[in-house]
Amino acid sequence: MRTIRLKGVGFPVSAVCLGTAYLGSREDDETSFAIFDTYYEAGGRFFNTAHEYGDGNSERVIGKWLRARGIPREDIVLTSKCGEDGTRPDARAMHAEELLEDLDETLSRTGFDYVDFYLLHLDDVRVPVCEILSAMHEMQRQGRIRHYGCSNWSVARQKEAAAWSAAHGIEGFLIDEIEMNLTRLNVDNHAWHCNWLDGEYAAYHRQTGMAVGAYSPIANGILTKYLRDGDTRAWRPHAVKTYTNDYNFDAARRIGRLAEETGFTPTQIQMAWVLAQPFGFPCFPIVGARTPDQLRDSLGGLDCALTPDMIRYLRPEA
Ligand SMILES: NC(=O)c1ccc[n+]([C@@H]2O[C@H](COP(=O)([O-])OP(=O)(O)OC[C@H]3O[C@@H](n4cnc5c(N)ncnc54)[C@H](OP(=O)(O)O)[C@@H]3O)[C@@H](O)[C@H]2O)c1
Q1: CATH no. for residue 300?
Q2: 20 to 30 A from 266, CA-CA: which of 27, 97, 253, 287?
Q3: Region 202-230 average pLDDT
Q4: Cα separations in angstroms, 158 against 53, 114, 122
Q5: How far is the CA of 286 from the centre of ligand 1 (A)?
């Protein structure tokens, strides 16, 4: 698999990152191992998890798989995320001691002695950026994380964090993990679910060059399933709420037309759009899969080179 470089990072990462939110929990260890094997055999070395996923089972199964296969730790790049506590009504747990506790658990579950990228899973604007950044910097100073970043943060808070990092001579965020795909979401633009159409995030990343980890790059498979079935019957309930609108049905038709024209599958067209870095800054898809076959389909997007006209056609208003 080809690799890409991220600004400020001294090592390359695989162009497609493997999302593992449901591995080790909704998908059992056997299926999870088969998905890891498929990704690894395709040359993939970049894994994405979080302290919160599957109550820790995603982190656990990654460590278990690596040991079972005898793969050296340094052969892979691992992103995990801290600061979310699903047992709380607002899910935030972002005070310094909570972040440091999360890292202890992440390392113990994976059996690793460091994480390559540790991201803040959410934001909590009640906690000052100085407290959060001091905790992340401390983890880095101890050699337990190599770099850090954020996920689901507003541009305004990211700017505040960047200003504080610069003023205190620390590295600051190198990755922003955020939803990015060809859909339009049924939510107002806010930090948890940002809508790329507003251009604010794109402008910030174009200006800073900071990398984006694009989660849900195929929008949970809903556009592919809509094209296959002609309706939303196979969508999961949360997807029906988030993605049902005419814009997305039109987007599916555009994807379907390009799939017919190029011979790639609808999923591959969507992956290729993210891989084309259509906004002009480094971004990499973080793709999920329930089966090895789904993953193989998505990875096929690496072979699909979209022309500038095709990129514009897929997102005419961008
Ligand atoms: N930072 C954050 O807040 C955040 C949030 C969400 C996700 N993430 C990360 O991003 C990763 C991926 O996210 P995601 O699972 O939401 O996104 P995704 O990659 O857009 O969707 C994956 C889902 O799409 C369906 N699918 C996959 N291949 C398909 C194919 N060929 N045809 C039809 N359907 C297909 C499967 O759902 P079915 O089981 O329904 O078939 C699969 O579980 C996560 O694992 C996680 O690591 C991060």
Answers
A1: 3.20.20.100
A2: 27
A3: 96
A4: 24, 25, 12
A5: 8
